[in-house]
Amino acid sequence: MHLAAIMIAVSLALPQTPDTLSAAVAVESLGSAHEASVPVQSVTSLQMARTGAVSLQDALRSFSGVNIRDYGGEGGLKTVDVRSFGAQHTAVCYDGMVISNAQNGTVDIGRFGLEDIESVKLETGGSDDIFRPARLAASMGVLSVSNARPQFDSCGTVASVRMRVSSLGTISPAVSVRQRIGSAWAMTARAEYLSTPGDYPFLLRNGELVTKEKRLNSDVQTFSGEANLFGDLGSAGDLSVKMSWLAGERGLPGSVVLYTQNPTERLWDRDLRLSALYVGRAGKALRYRAQLGWDCSSNRYLDSNPSLPAPEDDRYRQQEFASSFSALWAASDVLSFSASEDLAVNTLWTSLADCPFPVRESSYTAISGKYSGSRLTAVATLLATVMAEQLRQGENPPLRSRLSPSISASYRLLEDHALLLRASYREGFRMPTFNDLYYSRVGNRELEPEKSRQINLGLSWEEHWRKGNSASLSVDGYAGKVRDKIVAIPTMFIWRMRNVGVVSLSGVEITASGTLAASSWLRLRATASYSLQNALNVTSPDAKNYRHQIAYVPRNSGNGSLTLVTPWLNVGYVVTAVGRRWSLDQNLPAYAIDPYTDHSISLNRDLKLGTKGRLLHVSADALNLGGKNYEIIKYYPMPGRQFRLTIRFTI
Amino acid sequence: MKIKNLLIIGMAALLVAGCHGTEPENPGPDPLAPILLLNNGNWNSNDACMTIFDMGSGSVSSDVFSRANGRKLGDLAQDIARCGEDYVVSMNGSQLVYLLGSDYKVKREIKAEHEGVRLSPRCLAVQEGRIYVSYYEGYLGEIDPLHDYALRLTPVGPNPDGIACVGGRIYVANSGGYLSPDYGNTVSVVDLEIFSEVAVVTVNNNPVSVVASESGAAVYVCSWGNYADRPSALQRLDTGSLEVTDLSYDNVRGIAAGRGDVLYVVTGSYDENWSITGIINSYDMKTDRPQGRLTDMPIPSYYSISADESGLVFAGSSDYTTEGDMYIFSEEGELLARTGSGGLNPIRGMLVQ
Fold first, then answer.
1. Counting one residue from A and one from B, how many pairs have CB atoms under 8 Å apart?
2. Mean pLDDT of chain B
């Protein structure tokens, strides 16, 4: 805790910015979105800073109904699974652009830093926003990450330099610049480097035998950045152009194997993404949105396992060319309609001998209608998807198509109080990935889309009082199903992907939050959430795992946070508690994963230096205070107690 | 203690048979003796385990290794053999060979290294107090149970799997499991005296197990083919001439040596759910003649075949995602019991003596 002690000393010695408190009130209320007809959870940059969140997985810790699969460490894969539909049923949207991965269908959220991120939002089972890319309507959850847009009324250049270090050896410097160019244009740029040895110590509990071990081959080096150009074209609309890149190398530690440790796999990533978004207006009632994007990601995978005749050295490159066009017509004050058309082409090239070099063409067409009255909001969307694939080798798979309706409504029960009843129904799917279809021998070209559906019923309440005091509560119950789940069916020799799984889902999510101005110098904010998830394998009544909880889904989980904002120091505390899970669909005791709690504390402060708007942000965080190497994925131990110091200087 | 999924058939008949006054030439298995089951577990899951099944009471005590040693067996138990009073267990994932006492307590952990690389043991053979192990990195090792390292190592073919010891030689199936798409197609013949490869015999693709006849005139090689255009096969390798002849079995999935020079040959093809229903056939290695089926009972989701010197035949059934089942037959083909194996992927069974 020596870092924290230094922090407190530093904080007390310097004056606090006087306007931080009022800014906090303004931004925190952004996060509620409780009037939506579907559950929406969000967190703002300020809230994230207060709790010491530096990554997307940190930010998502305060959400309910979210299972983050974390393989541990900075480099470990991190995926988001909403309500246990499976990570491939959650879409990730970055500044309005859908991030996809046609090869394996999941997005590693560990790659998103929070530098310059303004908000993180999760919508479950639908959305009230009908002016967006069509393909988002296929997913059970939509995670939206939004960057801060430069303010056109602020002048000149804003630049910041950040350094982050952790007691486990992570070093991460970053620079970012925002520059206005003339009256109508602005640009932002950011570059970030991250290096970590990843060799964190952990206690390996093997029955009564407890040994001190070190994670091996878990090092990461990544360099990432992005540049944005924004144009405010007045009545003609808004244009934004983005380029982002990532280059990195990491070791893949694999699971801890008892009595021996010799991980031999490494992965190199190269990722370049270009996109442009134009939002325009035609007359008073019509708005349109046009988006183009290109994403090229390459991997090199090296396995120097000594059992191999020669090291396996594979290359993968996938590209996506995507476009999205939407039009929104406000038919009246309360009624609006939209139509969206997304076209995407995905390609995969690999160095594997039997790669058929698939090219996928997909079309997503969505039409939506929305009624937004004083008490009733209702949204209906119909999505039509058609997908065709061409192969360089072998027979082309059949055309796949899917029609997916969604409907949702919320009703304000009391005229002068924000007490709302909401109900929604959504059908979605996930298309089989290139790996599902074509991966050497395992793949199956006959696969159908994996279908999902859910119904949600909820109640939400929010109240605001003077001085910025507020409270909110929401309770949602849901039931859902995943049919034709794509699973690898093992046989003696070959695992084969098939549409056989059926998962029955039901659960309850409760979230509560409150903000209190306790005195002129103290503001408190508390949040809590609880999730009950029943995710049962109902594939076959004869199977030994029939009606057992599917792997890695906790029946009970929850989290809480407490933030204290004072003129001298902000204190953020976050706790996550996750109940027992199993690493196998059959809930045998040998496969149970112990419950865990993770506590973290952040002490942070923004200091105004001089009068020229220079700002120093200092955050000292203690992570996983309990210090236990708990596991989210069996035999992938998480780092123990860790201290982290972030200093950002902004001019 | 799990009694669920348990089926005992023919117990009464066995007990009656045991009451006869005259001792049969080959005494049948003691129905009250416990049975040891070895579960392979899933790759990288550290969930291999040993189970004791009591045919008398039908009770299953899972994970006897943990209870004896206070820690887990480890990752991927591949084979088990008896060495005197002790058991030898090879752990492919955990890269060690255990020598266990009859109380399942660890007597020795034998680790092998070659040029700084830990080797992954696969299959076992015991001959005159010495333990022979195939190491997947391409070696055959010789272990003296008095040492915790391999006494001798010799290179063989790629990814060696099943081995058989007969006539002063060891026959090693070089599966080439990592040489997809064609796999390996050789059997190494290693002389025990000089502990060195003296011949390489070409067989079908992907040889995985080898069984020797009692006389040592031949070894039988089961190979899985390349899962595409080269089918699986059962071949007879004449140990004198090193000539290889194909035996007329289609869709061979596994072999095991039974008592009295019997070779159990499992055949089976995929059903619509991509699972294999196994049929156990008997083959007389003395006369080199197929003897028809051991039993008419098909083994759903066939996973493994093993047999021991008591005359019991064990067929493992697994869907890889739930606890497996072990079918236990007498050498007459009578189903003595079917039991949950207490773990994933039951790979071997043997009578505890």
1. 107
2. 90
CA A566 to the chain's CA centroid:
30
Round to whole Å and give the CA distance between A299 and B12: 63
Check CB contact under 8 Å for A259 and B5. no
Q: Residues near B317 by Cβ (< 8 Å), separated by ≥ 6?
A: B299, B300, B301, B302, B303, B324, B325, B326, B327, B346
Phi/psi-derived region of residue B196, left when phi > 0, alpha when psi is between -120 and 50, beta in every other case: beta
| Total length of chain A | 651
Nearest to A189 by CA among A199, A197, A181, A201: A181
- For chain A, the straight-line distance linking the first and the last C-alpha, in angstroms and rounded, comes to 30
Cβ atoms within 10 Å of A126's Cβ, excluding its own: 30
What one-character-per-residue DSSP string does A534-564 give?
Answer: EEEE-S-TTSTTTTEEPTT--SEEEEEEEEE
Note the ipTM here: 0.89
Q: Which of A259, A179, A201 is nearest to A72 (CA)?
A: A201
Contact, A40 vs A123, CB < 8 A? yes
SS3 B14: helix
Query: Distance (Å) from the C-alpha of residue A265 to the closest C-alpha of chain B?
Result: 14
What are the beta bridge partners of residue A454? A426, A480
pTM for this model (two decimals): 0.90
CB-based contacts of B146, cutoff 8 Å, min separation 6: none
Contact assessment for residue B205 and residue B221, using Cβ atoms and an 8 Å cutoff: no
- Average pLDDT over every residue of B199-226: 97
The widest CA-to-CA distance across chain A, in whole angstroms, is: 74
The pLDDT score that the predictor gives to residue A25 is 32
- What percent of chain A has pLDDT above 90? 78
- Name the residue among A574, A587, A580, A577 with its Cα closest to residue A623: A574
- Cβ–Cβ contacts within 10 Å for residue A258, how many? 24
pLDDT of residue A633: 94
Are B224 and A258 in contact (CB < 8 Å)? Answer: no
Residue with structure tokens 């005195």?
A519
Question: Are the Cβ atoms of B72 and A206 closer than 8 angstroms?
Answer: yes
| Higher per-residue confidence, A8 vs B138 | B138
What b/e sequence results for A538-570 when a residue is b if at least 16 CB atoms lie within 10 Å of its CB, and e otherwise?
bbeeebbbeebbbbbbbeebbbbbbbbbbeebb
CB contact under 8 A, B44 and A307: no
Helix, strand, coil in percent for chain B, rounding step 5: 5, 50, 45
Taking contacts as CB-CB distances below 8 angstroms, the residues of chain A near B2 are: none
